[in-house]
């Protein structure tokens, strides 16, 4: 079992940085019990990474064929390549959130497939729906993760391409997201280059993958500080409300974020971390369960 000790030369909020990789409660590929456990597909094969912290030192252990690959990427995963020091907070609300959270950084997994798979499931549905489908697909069709923790590695593109219609249906996936996921799985081997090229445009060449999905992947795969989740039901309303007191749309949000370019996503991240969300007066959307139809 290979391991690695690393001392970050900067303040680090381990839970906040890695928590962005968790896909809801019961994520079969993520656990925060006794440190952080991640099960992942890597270029070398399915693997598990366990990260703990004692004082200022981070200790990582890995299992599986891709274990050494994950350990090599540990500093980047925890934000060592992040450009947070270049960020200038133009608004007092953002400045205060940053002051209170010096350890909040953008990590980079260096992997695309697992993130793109999960992001497609989150297109145009509630979090409850997306997380439920992620759990079902992972538990049914993901490989058991190497190591002592009972996790599941997200299903590979090849595994998903072999599913029958009734299997998709049992996991609660509608036709539109299913078609997009199949499109992505068919070219997944080429899309891994997006992390190396830092290219959202490469991801958006796949039918069904738009600016929201590519931004969600870029934020996590290569720690893109400018990848704003345009098209999200909540983000624009929350950002405009936090900065102006009035909920607005994507155009209004991007206008407000213009001074932060090329770190617009980081500004949004500080607002989200501060818990600044518009008051909700309308009923919440009821999640749909496609397994019933």
TrEMBL record:
Signal peptide: none annotated. SUPFAM superfamilies: DNA-glycosylase (SSF48150). InterPro entries: Alkylbase_DNA_Glycosylase/TA, DNA_glycosylase, HhH-GPD_domain. This is DNA-3-methyladenine glycosylase II. It comes from Lentzea kristufekii. The keyword DNA damage applies. The keyword Nuclease does not apply. Its EC number is 3.2.2.21. It comes from the Bacteria. It catalyses: Hydrolysis of alkylated DNA, releasing 3-methyladenine, 3-methylguanine, 7-methylguanine and 7-methyladenine. Residues 121-279 form the HhH-GPD domain.
